[in-house]
Amino acid sequence: MIVAWTILAFIGAATARSASSIDFTPVNEFTLQLLQNTYAFQENFGTKNIALSPLSVWSIFALLAEGSSGDTFSELVSALRLPKDLSKTQCLHSAATDVLKSKSQDVIVKGQSAMFTECATKVHDEFCESALRYDMSIYSSETQNTTELAHDINLFICYATDGRILNAVKPQDLENLRMVLIDALFFKANWTHPFDPADTKVEPFYNFQGKMIGSVNMMYHRAPHFVGSSEEIQAQILEMTYGKNEDFSMLIILPNNGISVKDVLKNLASKSQNWMTEFRIEGSSPSIGTHIPRFRISSRQDLIPPLMYSGIHSIFDSTKAKLPGIADNALYVTSSIQNVDIEVTEEGTIAASATVVGLEDRILGQSFVADKEFIFLIMQRSCNVILFAGVYEEPSLV
Fold it and tell me: What topology is assigned to 2-190+296-343+352-357 in CATH?
């Protein structure tokens, strides 16, 4: 299960196209840069495991970009890799929204977003139209009544994430706000080839230097998976698909011997994304002996420092933020928090994210053994867009 929510506080006195035809490379560039920046920031506090819902972050700030100007606009366009043409930006944003609409017996993906505004704040019609274009619900609220506002927001998030996220915000989180933006994402999927719990065993887990640092419940099966390697990012890649249609998948990115996760994250953020497709072309999908830890990550991220590392600054500064396209009030972003809880089991993965602005023979044949630190991505395959991303570095028995 992945649970992610982000709080952004604001204080102040296209033509439709198929999502599969859109190039999501710019969105993935933002995602991989944000993942590297978040890892670097959390490393200062000794945090080893992280998980993000970067598409939710991108979606919220892409909407804010439509109401921005001056340096605020320039910084958002650069960091989010947005086209400077508004119609192309709207097309990309709409396509990202469409990706989050999938429902079948074995895969459910749904995204819901909302904007809660203070009754006295006159939000410009153009910004409301932009929000509605991306299926965002708009509510007028008495934001000064933080208890009632927290109740309304938590109810929205609870419903949007099928009850996976409860009490995401507290009244004290919402003091002095003029507007709150929410983006909720729920993902639940069964593996195309599930693991048998009877084959799960306690096994050692190592760091990149080969030192045993703990133990994990190692899942195992032999099933057809795409597997390959990339010298460009210095890692091996395993792709495990979800559902009968195999529209979504998890990529496990395992650093080569002697290479750290930090090195691979740097490569992911700076190199081309050709490896995402090349490993499928050069690799194959034979029956692979697959060893993957059963794991759960719970993390809380302050996203402002990682976003500032990406070059977004003025929107967080009350004296420099320029958001005239949103409302007449002088608004700026005071906080951006994301909580993520991800659980990967023998059956599959459940992911819920709420972004509030205000994821028998084990020897014979080819094998992939994730018994050391790795990076994981959850992707929509036809669009090649990343929904969730994270790092597993500190083992535990779950």
Answer: Antithrombin; Chain I, domain 2 (3.30.497)
